[in-house]
Amino acid sequence: MASTAIPVNQAPTPKLNYLNNGHSLKSWLLTTDHKRIALLYLISVSAFFFLGGFFAMLIRLELLTPEGDLLQADTYNKVFTMHGIVMVFFFLIPVVPAILGNFLVPLMIGAKDLAFPRINLLSWYLYVGAGILFLHCMLNGGVDTGWTFYTPYSTSSNTNVVEAGLAIFIAGFSSIFTGLNFIVTIHRMRAPGLTWDRLPLFIWSNYATSVVMILGTPVIAITMVLVVAERLLHLGIFDPALGGDPVLFQHLFWFYSHPAVYIMILPSMGVISELVACFSRKRVFGYKFVAMSSVAIAVFGFLVWAHHLFVAGISLYAAMVFSFLSFVVGVPSAVKVFNWTATLYKGSVSFATPMLYAFGFIGLFTIGGLTGLILATIGIDVHVTDTYFVVAHFHYVMVGGVLMGYLGGLHFWWPKISGRMYPEGWAKLSALFVFVGFNLTFFPQFILGYVGMPRRYWQYPPEFQVLNVLSTAGASVLAVGYLLPMIYLLWSLRYGPIAEANPWGAAGLEWQTSSPPPTFNFDETPVVTWEAYNYEDIPAPKELEAPVAR
Amino acid sequence: MKTSRRPRNWRLPLHDSHATTGSVTTMEHEAHNPALVHQFSEVQQQKNAASLGMWLFLATEIMFFGGMFCAYLIYRINYFNAFAAGSQQLNVWMGGINTAVLIVSSVTVVLAVKAAEAGKRQLLVGYLVVTILLGLTFLVIKGFEYKEKFEKHHVPGATFHFTEKFDDNGKQIPVNAKQAELFFSLYFVMTGMHALHMIIGCGLFTGLAILAWKGHYTSSYFTPIENGGLYWHLVDIIWIYLFPLLYLISRHS
Amino acid sequence: MSKYLPLWPDQASTMAGQVDALYIYLLLVSGIMTALIFIGVAVLAIKYRRVPGREAHPIEGSLILEIGWTVIPFFVMLTFFVWGAVLFFEERTPPVNATEVYVVAKQWMWKIEHMEGQREINELHVPTGENVKLIMTSQDVIHSFFIPAFRIKQDVLPGRYTTLWFKATKPGTYHLFCAEYCGTNHSGMGGDIVVMEPQDYAQWMAGGPALPLQDTGRALFAQLGCATCHRSDAQGRGPSLVGVYNNQVQLEDGRTVTADENYVRESILDPSAKIVNGFKPVMPAFQGIVSDEQLNALVAYVKSLSEPPTGTAGLQDQPAPSPAQPQKAQVQ
């Protein structure tokens, strides 16, 4: 392969590609090009991430001291609620599918675009509309029910529940349309020769995710509609004083919200498969099993929701059934971790930033997943549910899992998306900050949970302070780790070395077109005659790290 | 490249500008069907994609209504007497006529699709219009039903007042008014959501009828008619479940 | 444990040790698994790091390994499940003849009433070595009764009773937390569980006038007119309540239900929900007329009618004893 970098001042006039094909605002805001829509999502999702992160900083600052002395109790309750809503609905659910998925799915299968490009744009506008409605809700007093909206508190709270509920409803449809687009695209638009057993694992993951999106999201939609209707029309569906059942709300809510966490993790797992394969220079060990495990997680993910209700008042026998099923759903995730580890065996492993994030994912997701098993053990769950143990568990899988996978993918495909390489030194440093900061923030929370500190506490007994201070210290380090990439990725757009078509020497159709790709992705529709991850046929580039501009 | 005769009722262009990638695109080698959009290579692929997309959307609608059906099922089991009393207060005649109206409208939808397939423009428009009229009939009758509920003080909220009993084969069983109010809450939410989908359906079909009248659909391209028809059928099927569940609890005489 | 860096909660109940044992087992297995993965990844990544001249060796997979690392973890998980389920069964099955205490949660306090009549706010005194069963309800939103030192927790719901039991083992004062977010002062809705030696507890119990809960209930039963229809001689318009609690009741729609606390509570608040076979549905509903505390007293009274009689069991002939605290039949 040719050398990897062309210094900026010697770059030839760039070819026409999706980025420079039209510069007007209208050409961006009315685009139907999946790659441009992916960038629109990148901007809006990142904005919400930093908003959610700001709320997280407020929480951690308040929790430095046992007394509630930074914020008032009501304000604190609103802050953790909005941290949850923003992070769950406006960051974690769309981050990998709407950014990396939108960009890569057509490229990876050799298609010119998604099946329904205009619906793709509609998805983005629904997301933005929902976001604006939620911002309006926040500026109008916010909402303080917790992102889980348990009734009867949410039907009686005097905060802005209706607007928040409607914002979630609209964001849900953004999600549904993205999933619908992916399923039809993957079924109907694969390039000739690209059979299901030759698909990249990122595609398998997004396919499974999309099935969960379209079947699960409508249930949260109707649940929020019912809560809004109950507030506005004084119906009594969930209010015991009016004959309703508050536990019914919990069942309906978690019927979506549990599969939702699989919507979050599955695409990130798909990224990890791509990274581990490329940076070991071999196909993922047990490809078929990894592909099938995505499907298994999607299916079983729908059967475990009531493990969020073990102490909520469900019957003993129901609890046992859901506990058993929750263990079953852990098996396919474990299978993936083992297969990724086995892929390293007899590989040719290199340590570029994306691979560092992949290693981070494997380690932290393992811890997060195992603590999930601890929570599934009902005898223990009685003690640790509704405490910081749960908070630590889900942050390990969401932040240590989803977010690290996303960052790894963002770095890996950055040259494809932007045509530039990011600065490797800074990127590795940020990855280190993220890993250390993350563990310092959330590991103490496992201990806090077991010794008994409940969740959503504005003030706490003094003996919990040291662990809380450790956690806040970690959060500051973590914040640096997230701010740095924003800075250097933006910097690289102008000053980063220009990337060639396949700087990593990676397998996959997206690398067979230019960086950045042309508007219609490929000059000619590829015809696939090779298996996935055919690394034995792809020579490794000389340097497998982002080169420094000379 | 694209002629203005291409059936497009959405002004958004499907690509950013008229720039090319600098080499011949595969698309220009295909036999150029004016209905074919750029991301597909064949018309059949496009039709299959549209069809699959529509079925997936219907699946989401079923999950959406499913949540309400679930809530209804649980409360009906637990509060059977009150739900039966509430059901007996619904106007089964209006509900029954509405059921017949919707079933007939599904027939007209099928006939519209067949007319489109045969390329018969006027017949297509005619059936579409009849379908819309039947849909509006449904909504009007529903309006009268709601009005009746309002007059009998069966609308949940401040005006709700329920003293009627559950007629169990002659035995008059008094029921808990709060539980009866729950029945009516679910009744209004479920039929209201259904009516909203009917309104959307009528709007959709109005758009289709206008485009059909303008000649946008030919025997080789009528996918929107098919997909619109699928949507209408789904809304119809949801009513077919709603009607017995809500109106026909314990109706013996 | 250090006062400033608590790494493990106190063990103060019979369940605590058992829960900790299972937790340690889970931590060990998780630790081993984590170490295996961390070490595995590190060793493989370093051993097979990229060196010039050595190519990667493509490997499809291995069915044996796949089956192995699917089945073995699953069986390990089964041990978690079974042990956890057995523990849960014990946690959720209060022993018979446990001492009962009624708990009413409200935003933002815990109101506790012992059977002997003692009332406490945000504090619960219990003796060591005695099974205690809490019968809990909420006046407004969902709360959760959490005692870390006992390793127990149960959501407290409006509109019904939920129960929780424990046997305290170690005297001391332990945290009580609300563990289900309930609004502004959720984090302030805590309290103390005071565990005392039996003799100290008896002393505490004896200090201060109090009317046993079931006597409060008996007084209410007469005052509200329940005795008019629910006569012990079964001649009234309503069924006799003697011996009803915890036995089967046949309903007029054919179902048979067990008359537990929730049944008694529902029958007072909404009699038309379940009508006893052979009786007319004429009982008025008391929803909104009796408070949660009054309901607890009535339920305690009905339960006492199923116990072996310690005194006269007559209902309507019993004069209402002068109560220590006058009870008015209105919502408090």
What does this structure look like?
With 550 residues, chain A is an all-alpha fold. Chain A has one domain (34-540): Cytochrome C Oxidase, Chain A (Up-down Bundle), CATH 1.20.210. In chain A, 65% of the residues lie in helices and 1% in strands. Chain A is built from 15 helices and 2 strands. Chain A has helices at residues 25-29, 34-62, 73-109, 117-139, 153-156, 161-188, 201-233, 246-280, 287-300, 316-344, 353-376, 378-384, 388-418, 424-451, 465-495; strands spanning 5-6, 498-499. Chain A has a two-stranded antiparallel sheet. Chain A is globular. Chain B is elongated. In chain B, helix 2 (80-88) crosses helix 5 and helix 3 (92-117) packs antiparallel against helix 4 (121-151). Chain B is mainly alpha-helical. The termini of chain B are far apart. Chain B has a two-stranded antiparallel sheet. With 332 residues, chain C is α+β, with helices and mostly antiparallel strands. Chain C contains 7 helices and 12 strands. Chain C has helices at residues 14-47, 63-92, 198-206, 213-223, 226-229, 261-269, 292-304, and strands spanning 99-106, 109-114, 119-121, 123-127, 131-138, 143-147, 152-156, 162-167, 172-178, 191-196, 248-250, 256-258. In chain C, the strands form 3 sheets. Chain C has a 5-stranded mixed beta sheet, with helices on one face. Chain C is elongated. Chain C starts with 13 loop residues before the first helix and ends in a 28-residue tail after the last helix. Chains in contact: A-B, A-C, B-C.
What would the principal axes of the Cα set say about the shape of chain B?
A: elongated
Helical run tally of chain C: 7
What is the CATH class of the domain at 99-206 in chain C? Mainly Beta
Question: What does the radius of gyration of chain B come to?
Answer: 24 Å
Per the CATH scheme, the topology name of the domain at 99-206 in chain C is: Immunoglobulin-like
Helix content of chain C: 25-40%
Give the strand order, joined by hyphens, for the main sheet of chain B: 1-2
Question: Roughly how many Å apart are the termini of chain C?
Answer: 44 Å
Q: What is the quaternary state of this protein?
A: heterotrimer
Structural class of chain C: alpha+beta
Largest interface: A-C, 94 and 86 residues
Biggest β-sheet description of chain C: 5 strands, mixed
Order of helices and strands of chain C: HHEEEEEEEEEEHHHEEHH
The dominant shape of chain C is elongated
